[in-house]
Design brief:
This protein is of the alpha+beta class. Helix content is 38%, strand content 20%. The protein folds into 2 domains: 144 residues, no CATH class; 187 residues, no CATH class. Strands 1, 2, 3, 7, 8, 9, 10 and 11 form an 8-stranded antiparallel β-sheet that branches. It is globular, with a radius of gyration of 20 Å.
Length: 334
């Protein structure tokens, strides 16, 4: 097995002493699909995890699913979301299932606690609707119903739906190799490409007129596309020209629909705080986020850079490593 060779992205100090470091990669896909990377990825494969949801959902543009069910932008957004299980999310998913003459029992994702801590406190038992992937599963079922495919085994790797998803990802990511496979956390099939090829997939999805309804759903509904205090939702609220999606395993991809550029991040140890710091600080450096024109409380969530004691005393901070800033200046801002 090849050893990963990531680069230092984020440092954390405590009382002026360097305490912790976080490593990973940054991938940039510019105009004409020009690829640049911070860190030698060695073209390693990484599973897309939930970052693949908008690519999976793009099947609706091939099958005319939006018009078939009269799906709203909000319903499309929740189908692409790793949502927090708030009432706004679960109600939309119930509506999608109803339109397709389906119910919660048809979902094959497990019943787990919602990502929202507020919602967790409202229930003693959780439903499949609370699963952060339930929107994706609802759309998969709806497409199966539309196409006349079996709904009982829609997660089988060789099911017509999953074959279509696999081929769609290969097309969008422009791959000429077989994609590594794994069951995702929600048990749905999930595939891997290089970080570079997935950046191409994001570009081909969010910058193509064919998939305008996916882009529109993201940009008009940042909270539905994620939820309270979710990194991707917060980024889109700070700049409504961005389409962002996080994934497990330390992933976050951001498409700038104004400049037609994509930036992807992989934190190797999957630390969510380090991911938030790296992504937000890099986007500020690039000018994709203007700190002078956004609500401070949004920035306080995504760029929570201070290390504090349990009494609130500030004793250190997180920062983007200087070599990352230099790379951004030399390779993207030049």
């Amino acid at each position: 097995m090849t050893r990963l060779t990531p680069e230092l992205l984020v440092q954390q100090t405590r009382s002026n002493q360097l305490e912790t470091e976080y490593y990973g990669y940054i991938v940039y896909c510019g105009k004409n699909k020009e690829i640049k990377t911070f860190g030698n990825t060695q073209k390693s494969f990484f599973f897309h995890r939930s970052c693949s949801k908008p690519l999976q959902a793009s099947l609706i543009c091939d099958y005319g699913t939006k018009d078939y069910y009269n799906l709203s932008d909000e319903e499309i957004a929740v189908c692409c979301a790793s949502h927090t299980g708030e009432e706004i999310h679960t109600n939309l998913i119930k509506g999608i299932l109803k339109k397709a003459n389906l119910s919660e029992k048809d979902l094959l994702c497990p019943a787990i606690a919602p990502l929202s801590e507020k919602e967790q406190k409202k229930f003693t038992t959780y439903s499949k609707l609370h699963n952060n992937c339930s929107g994706k599963h609802a759309l998969m079922l709806a497409i199966c119903r539309q196409q006349g495919w079996d709904i009982k085994n829609y997660l089988d790797r060789n099911h017509p739906l999953q074959t279509a998803v696999y081929n769609k990802i290969k097309t969008l990511c422009e791959t000429d190799y077989e994609l590594p496979f794994t069951p995702d956390g929600c048990t749905a099939p999930n595939y891997a490409t290089t970080l570079e090829d997935f950046a191409k997939g994001f570009e081909n999805l969010f910058f193509s007129p064919k998939y305008e309804i996916i882009k529109k759903a993201f940009m008009k509904n940042p909270i539905i596309s994620g939820g309270e205090n979710r990194l991707d939702s917060q980024l889109m609220m700070m700049n409504n020209e961005l389409a962002a999606k996080v994934g497990a395993g330390g992933l976050c991809y951001v498409a700038n629909t104004e400049t037609k550029e994509v930036l992807g991040f992989k934190i190797v140890d999957a630390n969510m705080h380090a991911r938030s710091i790296a992504v937000t600080a890099a986007l500020i450096k690039l000018g994709w986020i203007d700190i002078n024109s956004i609500e401070k409380k949004l920035l306080d969530v995504t760029l929570d850079k201070f290390v504090k004691t349990e009494t609130g005393e500030i004793v250190g901070e997180y920062s983007l490593y200087k070599d990352v800033e230099a790379w951004l200046e030399t390779n993207i801002l030049c």
